[in-house]
Amino acid sequence: MIDETTQSQAFLYLLGALSEESAREFETILASNAELEALVRDWRRMIGRMSESLGDSSGPAPSATVKKRLLERLPAKQTVPANPPFSFVLHSDKQGWTRLRKGREVRRLTRTKDYVVVLVKMAAGTHYPSHDHLGPEECYVVEGTLEIGGREIKEGDFHHAEGGTHHTDSFTRTGCTCLLMISALDAPKA
To answer: Which of 97, 101, 167, 107 is nearest to 136 (CA)?
Structure first.
């Protein structure tokens, strides 16, 4: 969901009414926000269609006085939020690991309404019980090996399971660390 302030900035950006500095700041945000990028693209398309329907758009530009009056109605400075909504989980931070059972630990990295990203560590000889998937699961092996569905995957390998599928017991002979992206439907709420 894009807040009203950001929508206003997007509109001013498309009109060319932001200062050079504010436009650069907005472009930084725009480059990292797919939802905002889609909004700007849609508005740009809509503005283009409106211009086409008006016919020749090479008419006179607004006078300096009109532009000045419009700019005076704007807030004094359009700024990028001081603390953009970024989060970091640092390797040096050893807290945040939860022991599930003997030989298995999990560390949640992020959670959205649609998915959860976790790191899972399994000690050598550890099993993960069979389970069903309501939503998709993505698994990237960071280190070690993991046997899933009778197939061994190793460091650098990737596995995808669709929602509605069943995983039999998974096992690691060597121990492993895996990065998992799982559907929020399959993740514990905590």
So the answer is: 167
Domain, as residue range, for 157: 97-183
CB neighbours of 64 closer than 8 A, spacing ≥ 6?
none
Q: Which helix (H) or strand (E) holds 181?
A: strand 176-183
In this predicted model, what pLDDT tens digit does every residue of 111-163 receive, in sequence order?
A: 888 888 889 999 999 998 888 888 899 999 999 999 998 899 999 999 998 98
Both tokens assigned to 119: 């790191």
- 86, part of any domain: no
Domain CATH code at residue 159:
2.60.120.10
Closest listed residue to residue 133, CA positions, set 150, 119, 122, 149: 149
Q: Decide if 81 is inside a domain.
A: no
Q: What is the pTM of this model?
A: 0.54
Token digits of residue 110: 């992020």
Task: Give the C-alpha separation, 149 to 139, whole Å.
Answer: 13
78-106 tens-digit pLDDT: 555 566 666 666 665 667 788 888 899 98
How many domains are there within the chain? 2
